[in-house]
Each structure stands twice: as C-alpha cells, then as structure tokens.
Specification:
This protein has about 425 residues and is α/β, with parallel strands linked by helices. The protein is built from 20 helices and nine strands. Strands 2-3-6-1-7 form a five-stranded parallel beta sheet, with helices on one face. A two-stranded antiparallel sheet has the order 4-5. The radius of gyration is 35 Å and the shape is extended. Mean pLDDT is about 80; it is low at about 275, about 350-360, about 360-365 and about 370-380.
C-alpha cells in the first residue's frame, strides 16, 4: 500500500495537517475496493484530488476517469448528459448519444456538486448504484454499466434531506465511506507553506523573482479566515506576484489584498433564514402575545376607571384615545360602539338610595382595586420566567453555544447575549 507522503508527492498535495493526512489515508485504504465514496468539505479545499487518488490506486486505473460538475449542467439536459439519449428523444436529438455512465464503463466517474442534482435524476442515479442499470432518455431498453462512483459536495446533506432537496436513501448509498477535507483556516501550519508554493509557481510562470512575506505578514496570513480556502489563497498569491514591484511583502501590503480583513470575527452568524424553520413565525407569535398583554392592561385601566367613577360618558371622553387604541378608529370603532355601551351599562355602579345614605360608610382602603396592578406584575413575571426557561433549555440543548441557541429562539446572537447578561444566566 502506498504511503501518505508518497501519495502527496505524486499528486502535488501540500500540507502536514492531521485532518488532511487522515483524509488521504482513508482514500488509499478504500481505493482497492468498489465502495462508493462521498467527499465533503467547503468550496475550494481541493475535493477533486481525492477521486483522482482513488482511481489511480484502484484496479480500474486503466479504465476511463470522467469528472462531471453536476451544478454546471442545466436541469433539462442533465439526464441526457449522464445516461445518454436516443435519436428523436427530444427536440434537437438528431442522433443517438452515449452518456457518461456508458462511456465510463469499467472506470470511475466523479460527480462533483452532487447535492445540486434534480430529484428525478437522483432516482436514476439510485438505480445505477443499486444494480448498475440505467435507461437512456427516450429508450425502453435497460442497459448495464460497471462504474465506480465517487461524489463530492459542499452542501450540508442533512439540511438538504430535511428540505426534501436530496433523497435520504441516495445519500446513504453514496456515503458508504465519507471523506472530509478540513477547511484551510483549520490548517494553520499549512497556510504559509501553500502560499510559498504558489508564489514559487507564479515566479516561474511569469519569470520574475518570488515574493516573500515578513514575520508580521505571516501572522496576518495565518489569522485570516480564508472563506474561499486554497482557491482564494492561490488567487491572492497570484495578485501580489503580478502587481507588487517589491518582492518583500509586509503586513500592511498583504492586508490591502485581503477582503474584509477587519471583520475577522471568531464566529460567523448566518443572517439568511431558511424557509423550513419557524423563526419568523416565532417572532410574530411573540409580538402578538405582547400586543395582547398591552391591550389587556389598557382594558384593566379602562375598567378600573368605570368602577371608580360610574359615569360612562365622562369615562369615554377622558379615555377617548385609549378606547380608540383598543377598538380601532373610525369604522372599527363604530363596530364595537354598541358592545362597548352594553359593557359600560353592566359595569356602572348603581346609585345609592336615600335610605342608605345615612348608614355608616365602611372604611375602604385606597388600594381597593390594586388587584389590577398585581395581576399585571404577576403576568410580567410569568412571561419573564418563561423566557428565562426557554433560553436555559435552548442553551442546554446546544451545549452553551449561543449561535445555535439564538437561531433556535429566532433572535440575534447579540440579543441573546444581552438577555443572558440581563437575567444573569
């Protein structure tokens, strides 16, 4: 079995990161078999190197190796590209055409960006994985193929399955062995090594001295997030090699080529909310509940005024703005006018008879109707307790990770942090 170091030299892979070495080791071990492999990792990490390693170290190395970018083929023609078509199958099909699966018979086919495949194509691919059978577009004849499938994606497959954009059974067929390539930001020691390699390559290509980074520039290089991974690092090295006159690059010069270098935060918050989550609905529900609480407090205040004064006309004139706030204006207020009058008549305190005027009046505390304020305080505490309980449970479920908890609660991470400080959680 070929060693990891020999494989890296053979395919021009640079780096000594443990995650990278483990991925190459798994590729070497799985190569002699016909097991389907799924390569995962962010865009730009070099996923296309893994299927080449697997093919060259397998017994299919003398067969064809075909790489297909599934995201670059239009949905209407992808079935024809993969499985072929018969003459006259659709407009423009002037002759019979063989697809990639037929051409790669006995070899290896690499399906890059497999997460972008349409659902109808996924069904066809599942059949190929199960028994090696496929049918050309416009044909009724079943054909057999013997291919090794290696797929790659930068999509979160479990999220795609939840959104019903990817078939769960196909995922488990493809990911018999899953090989994950780490992002460049997790390979600190490899970043400068890769930059030096790219700088050397471009110096040779453009026939100029190689650029060098000083110590401060190396620190900036290693601390940068590199969202585009190796592809972005290579582009930066090429830009500096071509545009800079001096061959010694300091930190300030390097920063001018790095986009958003000042926004290198320890955590990235995804501002984009998926259609399948309930964060928007939760926010609307919270707003409705708090609006209802506010209206309820206004009603308590209005009721208290009625019970104290007993004069409905006076209460109406004094609290006209409050009544409009609760029951609406113009047309909406007219609809509730009758109901409001009936309620006021019911709530009016009856006049005292003359026979009872000379009776001693019982002493009544000025705080007779303080129950309204007490209820308001109890409800406020109840809502606060519920909110604290929701925050605690969410933090426990996500092991204290504020980003995940904030997404579940439907609020921003900054708002969650403020509430944690407010409630001393």
């Amino acid at each position: 079995m070929e060693s990891v170091q020999a494989t890296k030299q053979r395919f021009g892979i640079i780096g000594n990161d443990k995650g990278l070495n483990r991925a190459i080791e798994k590729a070497i071990q799985v190569a002699p078999t016909d097991i389907s492999v799924l390569v995962t990792g962010e865009s730009g990490v070099g996923k296309e190197s893994v299927p080449k390693i697997i093919h060259s170290l397998s017994h299919r190395k003398h067969g064809k190796y075909i790489a297909v970018n599934c995201g670059a083929i239009p949905e209407g023609t992808i079935d024809s590209e993969l499985f072929g078509h018969e003459k006259g199958a659709f407009t423009g099909a002037t002759q019979t055409r063989s697809g990639y699966f037929e051409e790669a018979d006995g070899g290896t086919i690499f399906l890059d960006e497999v997460g972008e495949l349409p659902l109808t194509t996924q069904v066809r691919l599942l059949r190929v994985l199960e028994n090696g059978e496929f049918i050309k577009v416009g044909s009724s004849k079943v054909q057999k193929t013997n291919v090794r499938i290696v797929a790659a994606t930068n999509v979160n497959m479990f999220e795609a399955i939840k959104k019903e954009k990817f078939r769960e059974d196909l995922y488990y067929r493809l990911s018999t062995v899953e090989i994950h390539l780490p992002p460049l930001r997790e390979r600190d020691e490899d970043i400068h090594l890769l930059f030096r390699k790219f700088a050397s390559d471009f110096a040779l290509k453009y026939k100029m001295p190689s650029i060098r980074l000083d110590d401060n520039a190396v620190q900036v290089l290693q601390k940068y997030r590199w969202s585009g991974n190796i592809r972005q690092l290579r582009n930066i090295a090429e830009q500096i090699s071509v545009l800079e006159q001096t061959r010694s690059i300091d930190a300030a010069t390097l920063r001018s080529y790095l986009p958003n270098v000042g926004d290198n935060l320890p955590a990235v918050v995804n501002q984009k909310k998926s259609e399948s989550d309930f964060s928007n609905e939760r926010e609307i529900l919270y707003k409705v509940l708090f609006d209802m609480k506010s209206d309820l407090n206004d009603l308590k205040k209005l009721t208290l005024e009625l019970m104290r004064n007993g004069d409905s006309d006076q209460v109406r004139s004094d609290n006209e703005s409050l009544i409009q706030k609760i029951y609406g204006n113009d047309e909406e207020q007219a609809q509730y006018e009758e109901e409001l009058e009936e309620q006021m008549e019911v709530l009016q305190i009856p006049e005292k008879h003359e026979s009872t005027q000379h009776q001693p009046t019982p002493t009544v505390s000025e705080d007779k109707y303080s129950f309204a304020e007490e209820i308001e305080e109890e409800e406020t505490l109840s809502l606060q307790d519920k909110e604290i309980e929701l925050i605690k449970k969410s933090l426990e479920r996500h092991n204290g990770k504020r980003k995940a908890a904030a997404e579940e609660l439907g609020i921003s991470e900054r708002t969650l942090y403020r509430k944690i400080k407010q409630y001393d959680l």
